[in-house]
Amino acid sequence: MAALRYAGLDDTDSEDELPLGWEQRTTKDGWVYYANHTEEKTQWEHPKTGKRKRIAGDLPYGWEQETDENGQVYFVDHINKRTTYLDPRLAFTVDDNPTKPTTRQRYDGSTTAMEILQGRDLTGKVVIVTGANSGIGFETAKSFALHGAHVILACRNLTRANEAVSRILGEWHKAKVEAMTLDLAQLRSVQHFAQAFKAKNVSLHVLVCNAAAFALPWTLTKDGLETTFQVNHLGHFHLVQLLQDVLCRSAPARVVVVSSESHRFTDINDSSGNLDFSRLSPSKNDYWAMLAYNRSKLCNILFSNELHRRLSPRGVTSNAVHPGNMMYSSIHRNWWVYTLLFTLARPFTKSMVKQTALPPKVKYGKWTTFCQPRRSD
Questions:
Q1: What is the pTM of this model?
Q2: Which domain holds residue 27?
Q3: What is the predicted pLDDT for the residue at 105?
Q4: Are residues 305 and 158 in the same domain?
Q5: Backbone angles phi, psi at 289, to 5 degrees
Q6: Catalytic site residues?
Q7: Peptide bond into 101 cis (omega under 30)
Q8: Which of 266, 255, 263, 261 is nearest to 297 (CA)?
Q9: For residue 25, what is the enclosing H or E element?
Q10: For residue 281, is it within any domain?
Q11: Which ranges does the record mark as transmembrane (predicted)?
């Protein structure tokens, strides 16, 4: 139990708790067997339940399986820089002949992205996350990278993006992550990003449109459009258009558009029910920062729904997501009133790592070496 406690796996059901002197082990092909140190024997069946078990899923992020000079399998945790002969997946074993599980909700508002991705191997998947140098964009990019995906942080500030890359590599030096410049407030920058990405000749399996501006004073971009509208919606709209062919070639693929519940508190139609373009990019006299943000989030919803309708037959899905209740992040930095509001609300909000849950640890030493049981099948 001491080894399990060190690994963080000691919180087990009482039915599966081993008697004193027993120990769980795993074979190279993922089967669980039990060693009795008192009698120096091994068996496949659990000493209390009589069940046979096997390992479910892949190793957690940052772990690798190695073999020592004696042929003994051990596990390396690169995140916490430690090794163990205890398989970290022992907390996630399943019965050899499992019954059909009952349907139930697996995740709730307190679930983190890392918990959802537990055991998932995203090796070979390519992911772009916009606005990934901080906030939920960073947590999303990190979660993908630590599970094996090749992640591109698409950010306006390349220096801060490279710092974010360094933080991820600091958690797992084998993470495949890089930064590229993308300024959504300049459509030419969006075009340059798409061209540079296509020049890599790689697939694109996930595009997370996360970057956003909030509570900005009224300004026009170099393209002559109101900044909140262009950054939050039009820039991403143009980006998806430019990368649409890559997404379709990479199918199954998906686009995730980070929107907000605030889309409910606005409208972009005039009194006749027709689209009012002046509401999308208003003049200075008609501008209110919160309303501009809400309208941009409504555009996100409408865009995602139509994108899914058009591309889902080609294997590309699109979903708009609300990341959760108001959170403490740097998005409020443009006005002190919002900074105060977010600060007061912080004790009642979700943490950054919980916001990213959209949809994968042991003491040095060796086990005593007596033989595994032979499998009868």
A1: 0.66
A2: 22-95
A3: 52
A4: yes
A5: -55, -45
A6: 293
A7: no
A8: 263
A9: strand 22-26
A10: yes
A11: none
